[in-house]
Write a structure and sequence with these properties.
Rossmann fold, single chain, alpha/beta, globular
């Protein structure tokens, strides 16, 4: 079984990849540099790909800064010390990002003969992002079947989101069961020039909360 893994270098995509690997999938990892200010995660993606023993790791550059519309792809300030339970779509939402990423993964999947795509989307922690919902994933699977040669010829594509209904602590526990080394990952939206996490953006806050609730130390902090 072959699957294309959307690999960001964060702990969610690493855990999703580890789950898929445990299920017997041969992984083709796809990492996308989209002009994000936290490009430090691309280095982590390379480390994670090696740790997962992927068949191939493809890096694509799709610069979304020309579109803008997000504090991750523009000069707008990334929110810090925000209530992560706050309603509404945060400024870190990147317009249509997961639609773009899944489309690229789908194209590569057709080429390598894979009918499965694995992604670390999580609706509970990122409920403000419309492209992290189960409804969106189901709709994209339908698009994949209708808009590809493989689909027209009878193949059925599936987007696996094993973390979609899990909280961060449960994700971390599951990863640790599979031997995931979270010290390889990067989560911060607004790292220092040296690549150190800020500790106060939404992603850092969610990560810290997850490790705290899981009752284990974050190995990235210890390094």
């Amino acid at each position: 079984m072959r699957a294309v893994l959307l690999l960001s270098g964060g702990l969610d995509s690493y855990t999703a990849g580890a789950i898929a690997k445990s299920q017997g999938f041969t992984l083709f990892a796809l990492t996308i540099g989209y002009g994000q200010r936290h490009a430090r995660e691309l280095e982590s993606a390379r480390d994670v790909a090696r740790a997962l023993g992927v068949e191939r790791h493809l890096e694509l550059a799709i610069d979304l800064r020309a579109i803008g519309g997000s504090s991750l792809t523009s000069g707008d300030a990334v929110p810090h010390d925000r209530d992560i339970g706050e309603a509404g779509i945060p400024s870190t939402y990147v317009p249509a990002r997961n639609t773009i990423f899944l489309s690229l993964a789908l194209g590569w999947a057709e080429v390598v003969g894979a009918y499965d795509i694995v992604a670390g989307m999580n609706a509970l922690d990122y409920s403000g992002y419309p492209d992290c919902r189960s409804e969106f994933i189901a709709a994209f699977e339908r698009v994949a079947d209708l808009g590809t040669r493989a689909g027209v010829e009878g193949a059925r594509f599936r987007v696996h989101t094993p973390l979609i209904a899990l909280g961060k602590a449960d994700i971390i526990r599951r990863g640790l069961e599979l031997g995931v080394d979270y010290g390889l990952t990067h989560s911060c939206y607004d790292p220092s020039p040296a690549g150190r996490p800020c500790g106060t953006c939404d992603s850092c806050a969610l990560r810290a909360k997850g490790f705290r609730e899981a009752g284990v130390p974050d190995p990235l902090v210890l390094r």
